[in-house]
Amino acid sequence: MKKRIIALILAFVIALGCCSPAFAKESKDETVNPLSQAGTSDLPFILIRGMNFSGLYYKMGTDKEQNCLGEIKAADIIKVVLKASTTAIFKRDWNVFADIACDYAKDLMGLMACDEKGNSKYDVSVQDYPLAISNYPELQNGETDEFGILHAACDIYGADKVYYYNYDWRLDPLTHADKINKLVNQALKDSGKDKVNLVCASMGGIETISYMYKYGTEKLNRVIFLSSTFTGTHVTTDVLQGKIDFNSYYVYMYLRKLVAQNNKGLGVLMDALYKIKLFDGVCKFLNKTLAPNIIDEVYDYFLTDTFGTMPSVWALVLPEEYDACIKYMFEGKEEKYADFIALTKEYQKMTAQRDEMLYKAVEDGTSICVVAGYNSATVPVYVGGGSNGDSILEADRMLGKAKVAPLGTTLSNDKDAHFKNPKISFDNTVDLTNVLFPENTWAIRNGRHVGCNYGTDMSTFLFTLVNYKGTPTVTNVKGYNQFMDSSTGYDLMLVK
Q1: Is residue 37 within 8 Å of 460, Cβ to Cβ?
Q2: CA 101 – CA 4 distance, rounded (Å)
């Protein structure tokens, strides 16, 4: 029973820690024109999207077609937990809690599992878009995140110059690289150009790195890593080592932001529950009673043969902890998972060359920009959970290996740190001095994950970078600071 509860929790760790928040409130500022500061480029525009849970279909094209993952809503999760808890207490049987919670988890993500070779266990497909967006009217008028980006791109360039790479995010990024190459070649053939501009959002970062690794950067004029996984993530690295931890403050901060943005009353309730130390009690129970005794069983029971065998997850593992991850997940089972382990080693070979590959790309004429948000808790149920990020991924990794203070703290007590070193944010939280691209990286306080909704300042900013004549830097792109703030996650405010 206990291991089923933790299995459910770990499933949510991966799911929430990697996907865009489907339950986030959408907003659009009708007064903002996404074209107001963006020029136009005559090069094709390609968007490599992030994880698309709602885009995975079981038995697609048949009468049994269904989404592989139900919609993740904070309200639904809370309802399930409350129902399971009250029923278990009433019946004095915690097996009831496990049954209700695991039934919900099974309905939500049961069809997503991969086998010991990294292939999908079930007949799962995604919609493919091998041609320009002009052939797919349904993609031209979206409002939020990647679809908002496509909408603005169609306005700016025309739908016949816009391309969209959708993919089964669970599977091999090196195989995806082949399909990205086909899309790039299609765009070049259609346009008669010899280069493209490419934006990669969230999980699209590691897909783009995979493309560069296999096919080089000769055909890339500009690459923008937006809220991107291009340097890996702590969440995958921690979870694949069993580093599970529940910090009461971060759990409170994370859940409060999810529920309070649509309901102020729920925010007040969350505050009250935190003040009476309910979160402390729950997290202490999870950390001290359940996790230490059953974590190994949980991985054997659930995680290894589902998320643990998704190739994409392993492409995000930090190199310095790769061996520890392999040992934890597959020790004593190396023969069974030999093919999969060989696949993960190729990802590590790619990761080892990543930094030099990116630097070489710049030397050869490809300009690279990095944009990410910070000042929100990440999913707070792994050791690195609660890290300063954008609610989904950690800011230090998205910004290209930045130095970032834990949420609610500062890098130092020096109130003048920014004025002594302009690469330190005004709030003394982010230090971009030693990131991969210090002059081409922008950090946005309170910025949302892939928060480029159509008609917002973030959309304008993104396309200003895409269309900038020459190499965009934090000093020559006028109207935007290296460090900016956002009241909504979409609309930018300059910090001076």
Answers
A1: yes
A2: 9
| DSSP states along 229-254 | -TT--HHHHHHTTT-B---HHHHHHH
Q: In 3D, which of 448, 468, 435, 459 has the Cα closest to residue 47?
A: 459
Instruction: Tabulate helix, strand, coil % of the chain (nearest 5).
Output: 45, 10, 40
Count of residues making up the chain: 496
Are residues 202 and 227 in contact, defined by beta-carbon separation less than 8 angstroms?
Answer: yes
The rounded distance, in Å, linking the Cα atoms of 139 and 105 is 30
Residue 329 sits at the vertex; the CA angle it makes with 401 and 225, to the nearest 5 degrees, is 25
In this structure, what token pair is assigned to residue 88?
């278990």
Tens digits of residue pLDDT in 391-440: 899 999 999 999 999 988 999 999 999 999 999 999 999 999 999 999 99
State residue 41 phi and psi, 5-degree precision: -110, 145
Q: For the segment 338-376, what is each residue's pLDDT rounded down to a tens digit?
A: 999 999 999 999 999 999 999 999 999 999 999 999 998
Can you read off the two tokens belonging to residue 436? 């991969």
Enumerate the β-bridge partners of residue 443. Answer: 372, 483
